[in-house]
Design goal:
Layout: H1 12-26, H2 32-37, E1 43-50, E2 54-55, H3 59-65, E3 71-74, E4 81-82, E5 89-94, H4 95-126, E6 132-134, H5 144-153, E7 167-169, H6 171-177, H7 180-190, E8 196-200, H8 203-212, E9 216-220, H9 224-236, E10 244-248, H10 256-259, E11 266-268, H11 271-274, E12 281-285
Parallel strand pairs: 6-11, 7-8, 8-9, 9-10, 10-11
Antiparallel strand pairs: 1-5, 1-12, 2-4, 3-5
Length: 286
Amino acid sequence: MIEYTQYRKLPKEYIKKKISEFLKEDIPDIDKTTAGTIPAKAVSTALIIPEEDIVFAGADIIKFFFEKGFNCKIFAKDGEQIKKEKVIASIKGNSGKILSYERVLLNLLQRLCGIASLTREYVKIAEPYKVRILDTRKTIPGLRLFEKYAVTVGGGWNHRLDLSTGILIKDNHIQAAGGITNAIIKIKKKNYKLPIELEVENLEQIKEGITAGIDGFLLDNMSPDKIKKCVSFIRSLPGGKNIFIEASGGITLKTLPAYVKTGIDAISIGALTHSAKAANIHIEFE
């Protein structure tokens, strides 16, 4: 089984650094609307409330937005299913700072809760068949670690984080390298000490990959019936039960039930991050 690092906890310093970057982008000088309308020492209590049922992701994010000088109470745990209108957190402190941070905080929470909620829908279908739902690198630049964390919060699994931490030979690599065997020979000479996964579209490519000695296959854009045949072939080979097999390519919630019954180990879903709808969450002053 090929398994990459799982991001089930975000580093404290990473969160703080990103929050600082995001706030600097949104408040390059001062928040002129807030500074011009709210007394500098005004204190308020604000509530974070979802307007729909969600899977919550972002407890530490809220905490580090309001770390000093605030009384911040968080009533939800990451991964918890939260009902519409249930208060996620209350923040008591400087009114101006809460207003200035509001949009950046909500943008991030809405994004991550949306990913976690969509992932949970896929996981519910795949879990009974012991098929893992994997993310991809189809993430927003600068937000990848947050988004991969949200996938694990929703019950999914992380595929490779980046191009340095995993090897996946795709069709364009094969074309540029002069074929599957050439690509695998070349990369083995590098001795990266990483498992080699090969993207394939047919049984002939699988046979060539097996001969060249790969560790896993990504069955790309195949029908469930075709996947079953490929899985049966791979598993029948000596050592075939140890070869990692994942499917990918436009698999949706509607088509997923047919794919989880094919005998594969995992399904990678780009839509978890590139098509997740932002959760509807707002901040309301008491």
